[in-house]
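Hi support team,

I'm filing this because I wasn't sure whether my run with magnesium ion finished correctly. The job status page said complete, but I'd like someone to confirm that the output block is well-formed before I use it downstream. Pasting the exact inputs I used:
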Amino acid sequence: MSICALIVAAGRGQRAGAERPKQYLPLAGSPLLAHTLRRFLTHPKIDRVKVVIHQDDRELYNEAVAGLNLEPPAIGGATRQQSVLLGLEELATAPPEIVLIHDAARPFVDAATIDAIIAELAHSDGAIAAIAMTDSVKLAKSGVVEKNITRENLWRAQTPQGFRFQPILSAHRHAADLALTDDAAVAEQAGLRVQLVVANEENFKITTHEDFARAERLLAANMNTRFGQGFDVHRFGPGNAIMLCGIEIPHGKKLIGHSDADVALHALTDAILGAIAQGDIGQHFPPSDQKWAGAASSQFLAHAGNLVRAAGGEIINLDLTIICEEPRISPHRAAMQDSITRILSLPAGRVSVKATTTEGLGFTGRGEGIAAQASATVRMPQ
Ligand code: MG
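And here is everything the job wrote out:
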């Protein structure tokens, strides 16, 4: 049975004062959308994940999903309902049996809820996450209670809302001219049977500033801190420039290596890989592979950063020490920090570059090469 998650992220909803739609705002270091996507990408029963985005958000989207394994995004319409229909129409070219439609702004959907919805679709056309009303419900006008409404049989609908694919596609096509509040309402309009699945309060929709703060607290409680270290050496050979931290520095020699021999970025890459227990740079980019001959080491570092991001983690800080007699590092230090910050798309102030000599001692003292050592602190979901 093929199961696809369709994540609706085309909304324009913005938090007051924010410069981008809320689904692209950072939450514990990665965009809200990326948190939501990981819930589905890591679920063993979900085969495909597709996102519906706003046409103006392509750049934000590409940045947010770097390293994640997704189908090409669909471009949404003016309303959520139109966006879902456009997403379903794209899926229809290779239709799944089941589609789970989910709001980008609900990053805390749990695997058990997804499982329960999928299980229910064995005997229903639709199954949606919902919560029973536990508060007393009032009908009020201008803040004055007019009537108490019995809460018995009242539920709050969340997402995911799961459906057998062909019936919901056809229901959405027929409901295109109606303004309905969710996909369950579209299904109901078409006479489909929609079963409620009891979800939980953590699957809340992030809307307000307070919601973001609550989400940060929930994520922080679920993160732990990891530390990694890296070390590398490259020797000098004849040449006229060296690459250090992704910057070309004119010099009377160059560093020898299979790639561009950027010893500093190699040490940093290993520090990040070490922090997330993902082996070392040689495993990810074997020197035996001709593909990496002369390669820019910035792509090795970016890859390590993407692994952290794809796992829902965040690089807290990087500290690099370059060990050599020459060239002098201090004139380039600020540019080096900027370069690393840019390669990893980090907030400012998280990268430190330092340099030392070895007082003329050892191979660095004799000017035979450059050594670099680095440390990385990373926050990762447990
Ligand atoms: Mg190296």
